[in-house]
Write a structure and sequence with these properties.
Length: about 70
């Protein structure tokens, strides 16, 4: 998938789902039935990226919030 921008304004919901899935695939596996991020303190992957997928927060905002809260996402 080639996307020139990952910004909400430049993507559809389906594209954002693919962006998240491809980004998470970097750990070496699919997220189905995986709770690896939850084990690392990040919480449920679905809940974690839901604001981006739904067009509420940019990925940058989610990542900054994660880092500033020592891995806790509100």
């Amino acid at each position: 998938m080639e996307i020139k921008s990952i910004l909400i304004k430049d993507t559809t919901r389906e594209e954002r789902i693919r962006i998240v899935q491809e980004g998470l695939n970097q750990c070496g596996g699919a997220c189905d039935f995986c709770n690896g991020c939850d084990n690392l303190g990040g919480g449920s992957v679905d809940a974690f990226y839901e604001p981006y997928i739904n067009g509420e927060k940019e990925l940058r905002e989610i990542n900054e919030e994660y880092r500033s809260n020592s891995g806790l996402v509100k």
